[in-house]
Amino acid sequence: MHYKPPQPEDIERLKKELGLDGAQMAELFGVAGNRAFRRYTSKSDDTKNKRELGAHMLFFAMARLELDAQTIERVLQRMRRVGATIDLNPDSPAPDGEQKP
Description:
Layout: H1 8-18, H2 22-29, H3 34-38, H4 55-66, H5 69-81
């Protein structure tokens, strides 16, 4: 697979097109929160403040935008059958002792 991540301005453009705030974008991409998400839009050269968006994260977010709820749930069920614990609802409590992202 060949993958070149989107540039920070590409991600900012998507955010504007979707009309989402930083917290909502973080939820869409499955990251801990607005602060974590901002690292993907940072134009800083400091690697502490800048991250490249991995293909898996971009795929996850775009799948959530493009696929219907039933298809997403089928994928989540398959993940659970493999042994994962996953709940896309950011307000649900984390299972015993597990940390939420």
